[in-house]
Amino acid sequence: MKILFLGDVMGRAGRRAVSERLKKLREEWRLDFVVVNAENATSGAGLTAAHAKAILEAGADVITLGDHAFDQREMLTFCEQEKRIIRPLNFAKGAPGSGARIFKDARGRQILVTQVLGNVFMKRAFDDPFSAVDQVLRANPLGGNAQAILVDVHCEATSEKMALGRWCDGRASVVVGTHTHVPTGDAMILGKGTAYLTDAGMCGDYNSVIGMEAEEPMRRFVTGMVKGRFTPANGEATLSGLYVETDDRTGLATRVEMVRIGGRLQDARP
Q1: What is the rounded CA–CA span in Å between residue 260 and residue 265?
Q2: In sequence order, what E strands does 84-136 have?
Q3: What is the tens place of the pLDDT at every residue in 188-217?
Q4: Are the C-beta atoms of 116 and 133 separated by less than 8 Å?
């Protein structure tokens, strides 16, 4: 199975890059399944129903969220209606929507998509991500009812992402990090066969401070004072993510490549 994961879509620039490029990539790379993290797609904070629909129409099969999952209040109800949206597995027991679900590609192969939030350096303590994802993986053994499994680990700390990657090694096809908006260079296949990347980066304008116009973040760092709101940068965006090929029999990864297309980062693609 050929899988593409795209990192955090950041504001209008990120949405524009996905809308303009994703369908062409699906055709050129003959992709079987595409997962897009879009928790920052609406003004850099959350996701509206309209923007979710646009990303799905652009070629995403599934959208994952994150700690900003419900910053846009309409997502509280929309994620119940639109089953292709996955919120964090360990967000809260009473949270709407689902943190894990099995989908099918065009050939009928089943892929499980799930997401967990980290605890280290996050603004609030979430339920234990290790036990949360363990429960899902035990109930859905790789190569059984799921030909592939993708785990989005939405964490601040690189060490926590790495630990979760190894916790899932051999039990998931792909473990890919999101949240920091900064792409890492450590794409690899772990010892037991899971494709791994600490952070996929963002689909957004990198002439910025993690996707925001630089003036206000810099003012806060330099002076410690708040003057205005953060505003998403709106220059040419880079599509950042991870490309993975898996074996249909075992579900394990056979190839992994970082993806960087357009914008200011040096291109990297399969």
Answers
A1: 7
A2: 85-86, 100-104, 110-117
A3: 999 999 999 999 999 999 999 999 999 999
A4: yes
| Residue 3 and residue 32 in contact, taking contact as beta carbons nearer than 8 Å | yes
Contact in structure between 51 and 60 (CB atoms under 8 Å): no
Domain span holding position 210: 2-261
Q: Quick one: pLDDT at residue 248? A: 94
Give, in order, the Cα–Cα distances in Å from 188 to each of 86, 183, 255: 25, 14, 9
At 59, list the tokens. 């070629």
Q: Considering 68, 154, 179, 181, which one is annotated as catalytic?
A: 68
The answer to whether 68 is a known catalytic residue is yes
Contact criterion met (CB below 8 Å) for 88 and 65: yes
**How many structural domains does the chain have?**
1
**Is residue 134 one of the residues assigned to a domain?**
yes
Token pair for 173: 């096809």
CB contact at 8 A, 253 and 189: yes
